[in-house]
Fold this sequence. Notes:
The structure holds 2 protein chains of 2 kinds. Chain A is α+β, with helices and mostly antiparallel strands.
Amino acid sequence: MKKPRFLDTIANQLKNLGSGNHVHTDRGLLIFNNTSEVIRAETLLKREGIEVSVKGPPPSVRTGCDLAIEFPLNSGLKVAAILAHSKIEPLKMLPVSDPSLEPVSLFQTKDYGEYLMVRAANMKITISKIDEKIVNVSGGGCPDVPFLADQLVGKTLTNCPAPLSLGQTLCGYALYLAYEELIRQCRG
Amino acid sequence: MSWLIVGTVPVQGDALMDDQCHLKSGKLFVGAKELPINRGTPALIAFACAVANTMGMDPPRALLAGDIGKGDGSEKVYRHLCETLPERQEKLLVFHYLMPDVYWLHQIMLRIESLSVKPTLIADAGFMYVAKMGGVAREFDLFTPDLGETAFLADESAPHPFYTRGLFLNENMNVSELIELAYKNENAARHLLVKGHVDYVASQIGIFSKISEPCVETMEPIGGTGDSLTGIVSALIEGGMGIPEAATMAARVNRYMGLLASPTPAWSIKDFLPFVPSAIALAKKSL
C-alpha cells in the first residue's frame, strides 16, 4: 500500500514540536481544511481510543468558523495512520499553547414541565418529556443550524439522525453536545 | 428606499435567488419560489414582510442560496453580492445566516467603502460572528446578539460563541458590563440589541433602554424568535425610525407576539405571524 504523503510530514512535525520553543507541551493541534473533516476525524480517533478533544485553532491560522483537534503528541503517528486510512489529511500540526482556545463546556438545563431544554454553548435543543420527541432547536448562527433543525425536529432522541453526522460547523458541534447531554439526562 | 436581506436557506444546492419577497396568506415567496418559514433567514424575511405589510411599506428584496453548512451557498451569495454591490440600489443591508469567512467579509466591506452613500448595515448570526472576527464590527449600525453572543463580543479572544470563556458566560454575569467590554474592545456595532430575559438596546454611550415586559418564558426554546426580532427591527428601521427607537419597539413587538400567542415550547416561529399586526398596535400603545 502506498504510504500517504502526509505521514512523513506529520512525523517531521512531531519531531519539531519536541524541540525549540515547544518543549513544554505534550499536546498537539491538528488543523483541517473544513469543519466536517474535523467532525469525521474526531469520531474516528475516539473510536480508536485516542483521547482527543475539539478546540479552536489559534488566530494566526483561523480563516472563519474553524475547529481543530487536540491530541496527545505521543499518539501522533497512530493519529496520522488512522486519518490516513480514512483519507483525511490535516493541513498542519501545531503545539497547544493558548489556554483561551477551550470551548464552552457549560450546560444549562431548563424544565418547562412537559418539556425539557438543554443548552450547550450557543445552541439549545428541547424535547417533549413524554415521548422524547425533539420539538425545537434554537440558537446558533452558522448555516447548518436551520438544516439540522429541519432534520431533527419532529423525531425522537432515539430515531433522529446523529447531529454529529450532519453538522458542519461549530454551531452544529454545539448542538451535538446539547443532544448528548440531553441523552445523558434522559438515560441517567 | 429599498432594502436587501442577505442569507441562506437550509437546502443543499438551492440556486442563487436575488428577487423581491412577498408574504401572502402566511406563505413566503422570493420571486415565484415559496420558502418554508421554519427558522433562519426565511423566518427573518417573513417577519420583515409582515411588518412591512402592516405599515404599508414595500417588502424587502432577498439575496439567498442553499447552504446546509458546507459554505458553498454562502460563497455564491458573497460572490454575487460583491459583483452587484456597485450597482445596487438598496440603502439597508441585513446580513444573516452565512458561513463566517473573513476573506469574503473583507471583499464585501471594500466594496461598501467605495459606494458614494454607505448603506445602513445590520448583522445577525454568522455574519455578525465574522464581522467581529474580521475586526470590522464598528462599521455596522446594528448587531442583534443573544446573551451568549454578547459574551462572545465582549471576549476579545473568542473566535466564535462556542469558545467564549466561562468567565464571560455564567448565570450572574452583568449584561451591562459585557456590553461595555464589547465596545471597549471595539467588537460591537454602533448599536446593539441584546436579546434575552431582559432585552437591552445600547450604544457606545451606554444603555438606551431595557425591555423586560411582557415576559413569556416559553419563547426561549422556540427556534427563530431571534430571527423574527431581527426581521422586525430591520423593517422598522427601513420605515424611518431611528435605530435605538426601532430596536426598543421591535423588542416589544416580539414580546407582545408571545403574549398574544401564549405558545408552548413546541411552537414553530411561523405560528406567530398572524399576531404581528396586533403586537405592533400593543407595542405602539406601550411607548
